[in-house]
């Protein structure tokens, strides 16, 4: 009896191997054509729907459109280069200096001082002359702005760009005829 049980147990793995080997041809017969059909469907969807037809066809209209688009892009680049050259010629030519402004920042009770010297890069000599004539307005705007900021704000170097933008905005309201290109800090000391 023990031998019969052992024979039956040995026959079970043989039967499962036969069943598994019978499944492989079915998988190939059904799976392979299904896979091929899916590939063909993906190809047609990609070729006809996802990729624009102008790129697939050799239309002369699309070629002309591409050429005019390239010409427009080249024209824009040359215009940008010429405007950059003009701006580069005016940047740094008309700098109005404001030396040694001393303020007490906000929330310090007079215990901390900020010393700043600024250079205002202006767009024209007339703007520089206007700033020189109205230097008291410029000093007041700078002092008011710097004294309204706290020490952590002023000591943050990343905040200085927004401080410059704020200063340009404030001065352009007070002096509408003056165009300020940029503001440069030549001194900025917190003591």
Question: Could you walk me through the main structural features you see in this protein, from its secondary elements to its overall organization?
Answer:
The chain is built from seven helices and three strands. It is an alpha+beta fold. The chain has three domains: 1-51; 59-90; 94-190, Band 7 domain (Tetrahydropterin Synthase, Chain A, 2-Layer Sandwich). Helix 5 packs antiparallel against helix 7 (159-174).
SSE layout and pairings?
Layout: H1 2-50, H2 53-56, H3 60-90, E1 94-103, E2 114-122, H4 125-133, H5 135-147, H6 151-155, H7 159-174, E3 180-190
Antiparallel strand pairs: 1-2, 2-3
Q: How many domains make up the coordinates?
A: 3
The level of helicity is 55-70%
Rough outline: elongated
- What is the strand content? 15-25%
Q: Can you identify the CATH superfamily of the largest domain?
A: Band 7 domain
CATH class of the largest domain: Alpha Beta
Descriptive terms for the model:
191 residues, alpha+beta, 3-stranded antiparallel β-sheet, 66% helix
Summarize the structure.
The protein is built from seven helices and three strands. The chain has helices at 2-50, 53-56, 60-90, 125-133, 135-147, 151-155, 159-174, and strands at 94-103, 114-122, 180-190. It starts with a helix and ends with a strand.
């Amino acid at each position: 009896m023990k031998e019969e049980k052992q024979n039956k147990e040995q026959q079970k793995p043989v039967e499962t191997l036969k069943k598994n080997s019978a499944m492989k041809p079915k998988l190939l017969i059904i799976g392979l054509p299904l896979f091929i059909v899916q590939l063909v469907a993906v190809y047609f969807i990609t070729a006809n729907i996802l990729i624009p037809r102008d790129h697939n066809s050799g239309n002369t209209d699309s070629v002309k459109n591409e050429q005019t688009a390239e010409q427009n892009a080249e024209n824009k680049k040359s215009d940008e280069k010429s405007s950059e050259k003009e701006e580069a010629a005016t940047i740094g030519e008309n700098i109005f200096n404001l030396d040694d402004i001393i303020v007490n920042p906000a929330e310090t009770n007079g215990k901390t001082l900020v010393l700043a010297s600024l250079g205002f890069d202006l767009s024209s000599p007339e703007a520089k002359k206007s700033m020189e004539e109205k230097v008291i307005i410029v000093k007041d705007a700078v002092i008011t702005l710097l004294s309204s900021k706290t020490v952590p704000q002023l000591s943050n170097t990343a905040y200085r760009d927004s401080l410059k933008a704020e200063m340009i905005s404030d001065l352009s309201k007070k002096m509408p005829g003056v165009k300020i290109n940029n503001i440069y800090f030549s001194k900025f000391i917190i003591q």
